[in-house]
């Protein structure tokens, strides 16, 4: 096999996701899993529970991961990549620990991990690595010989992640009434996090205010906005805004919120907006509730025409990007330099999170980084 198509040393891929409830009885236990020890106000939990109940207690995220699994397996098969793809979640079944146990018992020794989270930050990266460490600790306590797990690099700027978003924005613009289209703002949106977490996501000293988290999002937003301008001949004004804030009101989180932003746009005379959820990999609950329900209602109240552009989801170009990331990392683990695709100004992200990357307040073991306690 030609070197750059060889998955060795990897013998399996693990799709690692957030997980979500699949019926009304799952909602509260799911929220308990998500927020264990994180001091989310009870009021906020009741509110978030309502978002799920509005959709029958079902988060779309699991079906989206099932669809992604299917396109990944299809893409691998079509490209002669004989590598099983498994799926495990941090907060709901199929649970990460159970999947990793099955993979270990099936004899997998070297597992590449794709997290359904594209950017740096504690919530988007280190927390996934902590949960991997927890799962490995459980398997170790059960007397199992541990496989090695490697998390694939951040793919926020991979063309297979960015190009489908550009197409999504073009489709949303085309769907706006013609008389407001040319003046439409692009409101790039992502999950708000505490400003302290943003600054620690790759140090503010190196990346500026908001750390790597904000810088990476700004880079993607600029890349998408420039590609859209190139395609349409119109330079749409754009901004990076936030959604889904939680936590106590006195703690500063990234702002402005998308709903406040729509109000400001309206007040400033903007004729329309496209909400572009660059922070998310699929149309899960944060997109369906916070954007399609809440922000869309706010826009209707203002009389501001809005559209919400698609996330990458199970786009075959994303599956191809995952294959690319896996083969690139496999080659590099074998000591062979491989091309590392990236759009924008920041270049490809690191393979291995450095010691102390994206720290949380309380230090906990995290796998698949330079400070992993596991080989
Ligand atoms: C950066 C980021 C991403 C993007 C990266 C990634 O995708 O991982 C993300 C994704 C998601 N967040 C999700 C759900 C929730 N996030 C919560 C809480 C929080 N998220 C945070 C950050 C992020 N979150 C933070 C700083 C908190 C508060 C503190 C904490 O608890 O760490 C809470 C608790 C209640 C609330 O506060 O809202 C819930 C229910 C779902 C599933 C949706 C579904 O079911 O379809 C997904 C994909
Ligand atoms: Fe979240």
TrEMBL record:
Its EC number is 4.99.1.9. It is an enzyme of class 4 (lyase). InterPro entries: Ferrochelatase, Ferrochelatase_C, Ferrochelatase_N. Pathway: Porphyrin-containing compound metabolism; protoheme biosynthesis. CDD domains: Ferrochelatase_C (cd00419), Ferrochelatase_N (cd03411). Keywords: Cytoplasm, Heme biosynthesis, Iron, Lyase, Metal-binding, Porphyrin biosynthesis. It catalyses: Fe-coproporphyrin III + 2 H(+) = coproporphyrin III + Fe(2+). It holds the Pfam family Ferrochelatase. It is found in: Cytoplasm. Fe-coproporphyrin III binds at residues 59, 128. Fe(2+) binds at residues 191, 286. Belongs to the ferrochelatase family. NCBIfam families: PRK00035.2-1 (NF000689). Involved in coproporphyrin-dependent heme b biosynthesis. Catalyzes the insertion of ferrous iron into coproporphyrin III to form Fe-coproporphyrin III. This is Coproporphyrin III ferrochelatase. It comes from Streptomyces kurssanovii.
């Amino acid at each position: 096999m030609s070197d750059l198509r060889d998955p060795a040393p990897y013998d399996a891929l693990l799709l690692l996701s957030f997980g979500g409830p699949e019926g009304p009885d799952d909602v509260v236990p799911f929220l308990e899993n998500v927020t264990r020890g994180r001091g989310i106000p009870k009021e906020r939990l009741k509110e978030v529970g309502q978002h799920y109940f509005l959709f029958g207690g079902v988060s779309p995220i699991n079906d989206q991961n099932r669809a992604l699994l299917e396109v990944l397996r299809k893409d691998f098969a079509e490209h002669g990549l004989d590598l099983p793809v498994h799926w495990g979640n941090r907060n709901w079944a199929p649970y990460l620990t159970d999947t990793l146990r099955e993979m270990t018992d099936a004899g997998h020794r070297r597992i590449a991990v794709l997290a359904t989270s594209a950017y740096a930050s504690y919530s988007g990266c280190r927390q996934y690595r902590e949960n991997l460490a927890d799962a490995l600790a459980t398997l170790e306590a059960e007397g199992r010989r541990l496989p090695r797990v490697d998390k694939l690099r951040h793919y926020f700027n991979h063309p297979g992640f960015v190009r489908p978003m550009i197409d999504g924005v073009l489709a949303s613009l085309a769907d706006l009434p013609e008389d407001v289209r040319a003046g439409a703002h692009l409101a790039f949106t992502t999950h708000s996090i505490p400003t302290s977490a943003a600054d620690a996501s790759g140090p503010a000293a190196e990346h500026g205010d908001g750390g790597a988290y904000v810088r990476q999002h700004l880079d993607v937003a600029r890349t998408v906005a420039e590609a859209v301008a190139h395609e349409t001949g119109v330079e749409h004004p754009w901004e990076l805004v936030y959604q889904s804030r939680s936590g106590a009101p006195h703690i500063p989180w990234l702002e402005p919120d998308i709903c406040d932003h729509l109000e400001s746009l309206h007040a400033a005379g903007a004729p329309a907006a496209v909400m572009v959820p660059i922070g998310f990999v699929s149309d899960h609950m944060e997109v369906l509730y916070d954007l399609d329900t809440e922000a869309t209602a706010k826009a209707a109240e203002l009389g501001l025409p809005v559209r919400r552009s698609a996330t990458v989801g199970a786009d075959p170009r994303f599956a191809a990007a995952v294959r690319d990331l896996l083969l690139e990392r496999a080659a590099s683990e074998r000591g062979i330099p491989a091309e590392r695709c990236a759009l924008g100004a920041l270049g490809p992200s690191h393979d291995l999170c450095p010691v102390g990357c994206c720290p949380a307040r309380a230090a906990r073991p995290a796998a698949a980084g330079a400070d992993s306690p596991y080989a």
